[in-house]
Amino acid sequence: MAAEAPNRIDVCFSALRERGETALIPFLTAGDPDLETTESIVLAMAEAGADLIELGVPFSDPTAEGPTIQRSSSRALEQGTSLRSILQLVGRLRSKIDLPLVLMGYANPLHAMGAEAFAKSAREVGVDGIIIPDLTPEDGAPYLDPSREAGIHPILLAAPTTRPDRLEMLVRETRGFLYYVSLQGVTGARADLAQGIEQKVKNAKALGDIPVCVGFGVGTPEQAAAIGAYADGVVIGSAIVDRIEAAASKASKASKASAVEDVARFIEELKAPLRKN
Questions:
Q1: Taking the model in full, what pTM does it have?
Q2: What angle do CA 10, 16, 21 make, to 5 degrees?
Q3: Residue-by-residue DSSP string for 68-108
Q4: What is the pLDDT of residues 202-228, one digit of tens each?
Q5: How far is Cα 246 from Cα 114, in angstroms, rounded to an integer?
Q6: What is the residue-wise DSSP string for the chain?
Q7: Which of 51, 76, 166, 231 could make an S-S bridge to 81, C-beta 3.0–4.6 Å?
């Protein structure tokens, strides 16, 4: 029997490490303003320099999200976006791009679909990782284990308040990368980066060989560059969703095309300082 292909996330970070680059990981809510535009934006992001892409699964009560992503989730739900339709989107994207695609969503939609059914469908369409921010690794095991067994990486989150012994466990149990939340509170771009985050990320990196990527509160190329000096990846969400909201608010084909172009330019600006000089 032929060996299974390695997970795209692992291949991506290995290649980035060889080139001396930091990963740019943009986030957008799937279905905002509609799935067709999401598909166009993902393709434009890939072309503009994104290394991995997080697709948010909209949910009615996204507790970890700030106002920007809450609104995007509401808009996507109004369009009828569901976990199943997002998996279909991933299937369409897979025939066009090969970069890693990660789903980030809350436990409820996955519970409604069923963990085993999700893992099977996600594997078939080419999902590479899953993040469930409202579940601990312990509570999330019934959801994450089937995905892990299907070759889909369960990506765990750590925060500045994480105890040293628990951080050790998270580094050991996560796959693909450790998502380090840079600050307490909800998502959203901030004027300044959290104090002390550099040392905390270095502490996490010292515990294992897993890449450590920083998100929450990152919104400018300057902030991405600062984080890229010590982290393996930078996750940017709200600043991208803001641009989609601003451009697509006019609900016309021209405005949606403008959203695609605006996000692509922003991705180019964000990636530039993360490349090897």
A1: 0.92
A2: 145
A3: HHHHHHHHHHHTT--HHHHHHHHHHHHTT--S-EEEE--HH
A4: 999 999 999 999 998 788 999 999 999
A5: 35
A6: -PPPPPPHHHHHHHHHHHHT-PEEEEEEETTSS-HHHHHHHHHHHHHHT-SSEEEE---S--TT--HHHHHHHHHHHHTT--HHHHHHHHHHHHTT--S-EEEE--HHHHHHH-HHHHHHHHHHHT--EEE-TTS-HHHHHHHHHHHHHTTPEEPPEE-TT--HHHHHHHHHH--S-EEEE-SSS-----SSPPTTHHHHHHHHHTT-SS-EEEESS--SHHHHHHHHTT-SEEEE-HHHHHHHHHHHTT-SHHHHHHHHHHHHHHHHHHHGGGS--
A7: 76
Superfamily of domain 22-270: Aldolase class I (3.20.20.70)
For residue range 139-193, what is the model confidence (pLDDT) as tens digits? 999 999 999 999 999 999 999 899 999 999 999 999 999 999 986 544 434 445 6
Which of 236, 222, 189 minimizes the C-alpha distance to 45?
A: 236
Q: Which residue has the tokens 């000089």?
A: 277
Maximum distance among all alpha carbons in the chain? 53
> For the chain, what are the domain ranges?
22-270
Helix axes 197-205, 164-173, angle to 10 degrees: 60
Cβ count within 10 A of residue 63: 10
**How many residues are listed for the chain in this entry?**
277
